[in-house]
Amino acid sequence: MLTIKKAAPLRGEAAIPGDKSISHRSIMLGALADGDTHVTNFLESADCLSTIDCFTRLGIFVERDFTHPGHVIVHGMGMQGLHPSFHTVVLYTGNSGTTTRIMTGILAPQRFVSLVSGDNSVNARPMKRVITPLAQMGAKIVSMNDDGCAPLQITGTPLHGITYDSPVASAQVKSAILLAGLYAEGPTTVNEPTKSRDHTERMLRAFGASVETKGNSVTVTPTDRLTPIDIEVPGDISSAAYFLAGACIVPGSEVLLKHVGINPTRDGILRVAKAMGADIELVNETKDAEPCADLLVKSSALHGTTIGGDLIPTLIDELPVIAVMAACAEGTTVITDAAELRVKESDRIRAVAEGLSAMGADITPTADGFVIHGGKPLHGAKIHTYDDHRIAMSFAVAGLAAEGETILDDESCVRISYPSFFQDLAALER
User: Fold this and answer.
1) Which class would CATH give 20-232?
2) What is the pTM of this model?
3) Which one of 40, 232, 234, 268 has the fewest beta carbons within 10 angstroms of its own beta carbon?
4) Catalytic residue among 19, 47, 236, 317
């Protein structure tokens, strides 16, 4: 358990840990490249370490520099270079849905059998969304419990390209299909209802793959070779979101969040925060393959807004902490089209509504979001985190603005994406 007390103004700078999505992909594509990929600011969280462990079991040497945390060298073995010790390899993905789903696309065309399983949370998450399109490509994937979830048995087999109209905007689904498409006969196209985060497409191009994007459609051409590169992972905007929200809702705050990724498929929280009246300035902006900026955030008088539609995929992971901001804002905030929250590490719609209600907020959960009538003073409460890192961090932020003490029943789950979160938060409480 951890007790959070109402905070004095948040002040100072925070160096944001590396982006989780990009860190995962740096290992995956680095492993398939011919030669060494050097990665800096790699996120050494439990989820990303699960990805490293999986590729280690597939015969890839991933070198970590413990004297320089975040420095990793992936000694890639080429497109045909995955060689597990046994014909059937068992891969444990922990709590990482990203590892589980995207790995299916890499494993489907290999020359061996893979058994992929995660923890109880991951094994309850829907995998049909990747099994279905990969099966259309010729993949042989079996849900071992016949429930459309992991554990999965993947028997490697030759694949062919397809055009797939995805019913959901999911970067994990899209990435699994595109990575399988690298090995397929003929091009592979994914059409999405709304454009999801595009880190895979950007990184594939950097590694030398042929990727064409038009609107919400992306096409990959098969290749025999990826070229290793150097990758500097930007700070994760999903991690920066907690300090951004805290600075907005704690009076007198001013924080500078360093080197944060502002990829336009991920920057929805910036657009929503500004729509709510947040005082945010982008400084030292870069236009690299993954654009970055420092975010200067000051305490603000927030007001309600409406969030839905195409905006949702750009901030799906930030919606719990956005709900906290909405509870502290004047007026009503309506969040729709976010049913995906119900199949994350926890049912986040339920967890957020339960926690904020316990703290005195006026929040009504809906099938695909919330209605939040903001402006009611928050008070401390005991919060059930459901072993969900984003719920734990969101309610740590809520506790900063609440009277009394807010008690998290289990704070250790933050290791999934941000192991040093509470230390970094304490450093801003001055």
Assistant:
1) alpha beta
2) 0.94
3) 40
4) 317
